[in-house]
Amino acid sequence: MGNWVVNHWFSALFLAVWLGLNVFLFVDAFLKYEKADKYFYTREILGFCSRTLRKQLDHNLTFHKLVAYMICLHTAIHIIAHLFNFHRYSRSRQAADGSLVSILSSLSHREKEGGSWLNPIQSPNMTVEYVTFTSIAGLTGVIMTIALILMVTSATKFIQRSYFEVFWYTHHFFIFYILGLGIHGIGGIVRGQTEESVNESHPHKCAESFEQWDAHGARCRRPQFEGHPPESWKWILAPVVLYIFERILRFYRSQQKVVITKVVMHPSKVLELQMNKRGFSMEVGQYIFVNCPSISLLEWHPFTLTSAPEEDFFSIHIRAAGDWTENLIRAFEQQYSSIPRIEVDGPFGTVSEDVFQYEVAMLVGAGIGVTPFASILKSIWYKFQRADHYLKTQKIYFYWICRETGAFSWFNDLLTSLEQEMEELGKVGFLNYRLFLTGWDSNIAGHAALNFDKVTDIVTGLKQKTSFGRPMWDNEFSTIATSHPKSVVGVFLCGPRTLAKSLRKCCHRYSSLDPRKVQFYFNKENF
């Protein structure tokens, strides 16, 4: 009786683990869907909700990773439980002592004898490996485990940055994982006593008298077992339907014609594309997915829009950072060949959309991470041109950190125009921008020092002088907190994780405990 209960306890454990795992899969699939189209749907729905609630949407990648860790944990528990249970199944099948375990394990697998088996190991000579690779549950379990291992191991930062194609293609093994999950329970390897058999031969009453089962005049009959019906399809149906709908929608949008109106090659191997597309509408700081079929039919890469909503085109800046981007830049550099065809999907929302909801904004861009803030600064220029009286933002602090001097030329004209516009409108104090050069040598620093008294900076040609080294963030936050003692300050970053960690700490450190005084809210771009 003890072994019988233990075996059924393990079966109950399988069901509980799978149900819990499927809940995670359902939520994870929904978050994937929300991530892909959150601007069009979720962010618009929550547009009138609190800032704190909207900000949670921008942690969807972090949630996606946490759910992946939980799936790995539950998968490991599920496999370990199966290993223990199959070890018990094997011992029970080999037992020949006439015990309850031996009798239950010897129930026939043949349909003509009722097929009321409990132990999936049909004979004492059958191995666990044979059952694993010949049963539906075992084979799909192996396939799902291999797919999960490949997806997780190829999703590391090193693989994503150095071998993006490996990450991209292996991550699509989730299709095999979902298919396996849907049919994993069809074989009915997790079994229980039928309702009719329980009413006729309840285990609490009949387990001790198993030797008299089927005897003439006995109250207990030989128990009948059946496989539990598959349940996982119920949990994956909704996210699969949402995912298919989202893929169809994205395919339709991506097939709309994109016209490239201007191509600009900037220093430091940065390509600027200005494009038009019928019905395209954007907000500041949003991004699009770009595909170039001549390079790869399946690869889509995200790029932040650097144009303003007020402009009659949309633009992106692409820095060479891998095989795909290098091939794309090389294709546009070839003067005597036709312009490659580009497909665009989007735009999609980011945290930068909320920049004009703050009275004071700190914009921090590292290298090419300046792109979302270029869109914001352009939009500000247009708002001043059109005398927009609904602009809530009163002050912007802009920090741009670059390794090489050539990078500053990407948006040099924009900063020059903003300087002139602020002077003409008498709003010189509205924009406070600082440029930091981290990759400098003594020659550059000495040349800048000799020409420090000139009106314009020797490095950028702007009125604002370039600083050498990195910002002292404690000093910057302290100054802003002193200058705006009762303001809500939005801190926006597009840059590396180490910088995000420093800025997040400063936001906590310099936010007042009094909610009526200065508060810093940290926002980071995530792709």
Task: Describe the 3D structure.
- The chain has helices at 2-37, 42-45, 51-56, 60-94, 100-105, 128-134, 136-153, 157-162, 164-171, 174-183, 195-200, 203-206, 232-254, 323-333, 371-385, 412-425, 442-450, 473-483, 497-510, and strands at residues 191-193, 225-227, 258-266, 270-277, 287-291, 301-304, 314-319, 343-348, 360-366, 395-402, 431-437, 466-468, 488-494, 519-524.
- With 527 residues, the chain is an alpha/beta fold.
- Helix 6 crosses helix 7 (136-153).
- Keywords: Cell membrane, Glycoprotein, Heme, Iron, Membrane, Metal-binding, Oxidoreductase, Transmembrane, Transmembrane helix.
- InterPro entries: Cyt_b245_heavy_chain, FAD-bd_8, FAD-bd_FR_type, Fe3_Rdtase_TM_dom, Fe_red_NAD-bd_6, FNR_nucleotide-bd, RBOH/FRE, Riboflavin_synthase-like_b-brl.
- This is NADPH oxidase 1 isoform 3.
- It is a multi-pass membrane protein.
**Radius of gyration from CA coordinates:** 32 Å
Could you estimate the helical fraction of the residues in percent? 40-55%
Main beta sheet strand tally, sense and closure: 6 strands, parallel
Integer average pLDDT: 78
Structural class: alpha/beta
Terminal Cα span: 55 Å
Low-pLDDT stretches are: 1-16, 25-42
Protein name: NADPH oxidase 1 isoform 3
Transmembrane segments: 12-31, 66-84, 130-154, 166-190
Domain FAD-binding FR-type: 247-354
Membrane topology: Multi-pass membrane protein
